[in-house]
Amino acid sequence: MTPRDWDAGRYDRVSDMQLRWGLEVLDRVELRGDEVVLDAGCGTGKVTAAIAERVPDGRVIGVDGAPSMIEEARSRLGPDVELIVSDLLELELDEPVDVVFSNATFHWIEDHDLLFRRLHAALRPGGRLEAQFGGKGNVAELVQAVRGAARSERFAGYLGEVRTPWRFRSEDETVVALEGARFTDVSAWTERKTERFDEAYDLYAVLGHYLDPLPDEMREEFVNAVIDWMADPTLREYVRLNVSARRPG
After folding, report:
1. What are phi and psi of 89, to 5 degrees?
2. Which of 18, 39, 44, 132 is the S-S candidate for 72 at Cβ 3.0 to 4.6 Å?
3. What b/e sequence results for 11-38 when a residue is b if at least 16 CB atoms lie within 10 Å of its CB, and e otherwise?
4. Using CA atoms, how far apart are residues 145 and 163, in angstroms rounded to an integer?
5. Which residues form the domain of 83?
6. Which H or E element spans position 17?
7. Spatial distance between the Cα atoms of 53 and 26, rounded to a whole number of angstroms
8. At what angle do helices 216-229 and 140-151 cross, to 10 degrees?
9. Is 112 within a domain?
10. What is the C-alpha separation between 63 and 38, in angstroms, rounded?
């Protein structure tokens, strides 16, 4: 599935939760301060900025498949962080990095086997992967609501061929994929998080794959249809899948 562009401004306004989670993941990474760190799926650069602060004598590379995200990140980060528009499945770097960090990205990528091979190739021998993304069962009620709304007579003609953009894998599936990509010291574990939103219209930031095929005048209608399918559209039950692995060195 080819990465789509996002409304980066809208995403940036509703991404405080992803920032909070990303900083928790970043706290797991032991850094001397001189490493080269790849932020795989850097979005608008909020966590990327925190990474840069922790490697004052190193370097940070931010990669995202959405041009608008990279544009927003450039305005936030300035010239000191290298930013690349690239599909992670096609990622090629000039030099290997010491750490690959990622937050809230891998569940948007269908082929995890290829993804992990690419990230393995991006790391120097002994380099480390530390990431968190949606795992099996993540936002289950929302997923069901989206499928229900998309199958309704009103929207099916536009959305019948749209594939679910999320790939929520289990711990075991992820370990197999990482080990298949020749990572070692692999661990994967999940944690559950419950979040309450002031309103449900954060959905505009995450339903783009379904909104893009719709006429402009039907997009708000679709979001409202998804909301109607949910018992409490301001509540999200998240399953976050954490991974830690190393390239042998």
Report:
1. -75, -10
2. 44
3. bbebbeebbebbeebbeeeeeeeebbbb
4. 15
5. 8-136+166-196+239-246
6. helix 16-26
7. 12
8. 130
9. yes
10. 7
* C-alpha count within 13 angstroms, C-beta hemisphere, residue 156: 4
∠ at Cα 28 (24, 32), nearest 5°? 120
State residue 153's pLDDT score: 96
Q: Splitting the chain (249 residues) into consecutive groups of 10 residues, what average pLDDT does each group show?
A: 63 78 96 98 95 97 95 92 96 96 96 98 98 97 96 96 93 98 98 87 83 95 95 94 97
Structure confidence at residue 151 (pLDDT): 95
Let me know if residue 213 belongs to a domain: no
CATH code, domain carrying 58: 3.40.50.150
Count of positions (residues) in the chain = 249
Contacts of 134 (CB under 8 A, 6+ apart): 104, 107, 166, 168, 238, 239, 240, 241
Identify the pLDDT of residue 175: 98
* Nearest by Cα to 42 from 14, 67, 24: 67
pLDDT value of residue 8? 62
Q: Name the residue with tokens 């039907």.
A: 218
Task: Determine the straight-line distance between the first and last CA of the chain, rounded to whole angstroms.
Answer: 32
Residue 221 lies in a domain: no
What's the pLDDT score for residue 80?
A: 87
CA angle 233, 236, 238 (to 5 degrees): 160
Provide the domain count of the chain. Answer: 1
Tokens of 204: 């505009």
